Amino acid sequence: MTSKRDNFGSRFAVIMAMAGSAVGLGNIWRFPYMVGQHGGAAFIIVYIVCCLVVSLPIFFSEAIIGKAGRADTYGAIEKLAPGSKLKNVSYLAILASFVILSFYSVVGGWSFDYLLRACFGGFNGRSLDEAKEIFTGISASPVENISCMLVFLGLTALIVVAGVEKGIGRFSKYSIPVLFLMVVLIAVESLTLPGAQKGVEYLLKPDFSKLDGPAIAAALGQSFFSLSLGVGTVLTYSSYMKEEHSVLFTGGWTAFFDTVFALVAGIAIMPAVFAAGIEPSAGPSLVFETLPVIFSKMGIVLPIIFFLAILIAALSSSISMLEVVVAWLVDQKHLSRSKATLLVFLCAALLGASCAVAPRVFSACDLLSSNVLMMIGALTFAVVVGWKMPREQVLGFVKYRTIYRLIRYAAPLMIIAIAISNLL
Ligand code: PHE
Predict the structure, then answer these.
(1) Spacing, Cα 192 to ligand 1 middle (Å)
(2) Which of 18, 123, 225, 372 is the most buried (most CB within 10 A)?
(3) How far is the CA of 419 from the centre of ligand 1 (A)?
(4) pLDDT digit string (tens) for 257-314?
(5) Could you report how far apart the first and last alpha carbons of the chain are, in Å?
(6) Using an 8 Å Cβ cutoff, are 145 and 138 in contact?
(7) Which among 1, 11, 422 has a CA at the least distance from the CA of 237?
(8) Does residue 3 form part of some domain?
(9) Which atom, in ligand 1's list, is nearest to the CA of 97?
(10) Are 157 and 322 in contact (CB under 8 A)?
């Protein structure tokens, strides 16, 4: 059967697009702090084990559904689990992508705003308190907040509307290697600062006594978010793979890149924070208050590189979320790519604007998507592959029985355990 479905072209483009989706704000503002708080190298080991035992098997499940189903999230599940109600759960994954896209665009907008400010030397000679004021000022200004969010969402839509190969594939192929180089450069600069040693210790010195239940749950949650699991991005991108592109190879390289990138980002950030004698933090305050001050002391170019890196990392993730919803509208509702993109752009702009002006809506969207919808999506994908698809067909993709067993038993059990522990 010949199919006209778009594809990414080369294997390199597939891996860069997947890595682009994975590498994002999660790697930059959450991972380094989490590692420092939960026992350094000890946490990194747990993180890697979680990736290997749970997250990678889920990645493979999503990728198998996409590659075997060759359709959007709903269509692929309908094809592979015919007659089951599971296809209806796929709406939650599509919804999750949409919700994450909306609040992620607000942060993407801030990075665009900060890139412009950095280009005009806006952080030169600023104190930490002044940097805090700048950030509070932006968050309190609906016009600035919403217009930057719209620019970011608009850029995302422009890449997606250009198509899978010419838009997403091409953008990822060129920007992800550059992004990596930029972060390596910042890491090298950061390591040469006096006092950088303490930051490296914070990040890497193993402390096994800090590895409690919450640390393990945090490692698993972070690896889910970081690998963009459970929301249909891996599934949708895999539906654009060519026959000869391997699910195992793609998953392995994506997880490897994502983890290495998170570690390099940590080495770019923490030594600089400690060298400046500042307490490490996570989230927006780290990226938009502490780091601009520290990096602007290291020259005018470094803040520009840093915010350009954040912008690229955020864009390469947001295009994957938008593509999930666009693919569904194109495949199931038969809209053209441009109409579908415009429709999602408009709806995401509405929810994004609410997130931009109401911090409560922002955190509700964040909590709902990462704690609830992502988990349900991941569980659904594992069940479709582990329990609905014929074993031989799955083994054709994953080759090893151990991986099949991880998909069928270990991954779903771990997700349920984490969901229960989150509720307690
Ligand atoms: N993986 C991205 C990050 O680390 C976030 C993301 C989640 C992207 C879900 C796509 C889908 O920031």
Answers:
(1) 31
(2) 18
(3) 19
(4) 999 999 999 999 999 999 989 888 888 889 999 999 999 988 899 999 999 999 999 9
(5) 50
(6) yes
(7) 11
(8) no
(9) 11
(10) yes
Per-residue pLDDT tens for 133-189?
A: 999 999 899 999 999 999 999 999 999 999 999 999 999 999 999 999 999 999 999
Q: Which atom of ligand 1 lies closest to the CA of 227?
A: 1
Range of the structural domain that residue 59 is part of: 11-423
Ligand 1 pocket, residues with Cβ under 6 angstroms: 21-22, 24-27, 100, 225-226, 228, 231, 233, 317, 320-321
Q: Is 5 inside a domain boundary? A: no
1 lies in some domain:
no
Q: Cα separations (Å) of 77 from 4, 8, 115?
A: 19, 21, 41
Distance of CA 113 to the CA centre of its chain: 21
Q: How many domains does the chain have?
A: 1
Distance (Å) of CA 1 to CA 72, 200, 334, 419: 18, 55, 21, 41
Cα distances (angstroms) measured from residue 280 to each of 118, 189, 200:
22, 18, 12
Instruction: Identify which of 76, 71, 72, 95 has the alpha carbon closest to the alpha carbon of residue 86.
Output: 76
CA triple 388-394-397, angle to 5 deg: 150
CATH of the domain at 409: 1.10.4160.10
Ligand 1 centroid – CA 299 distance (Å)? 30
Residue 336 lies in a domain: yes
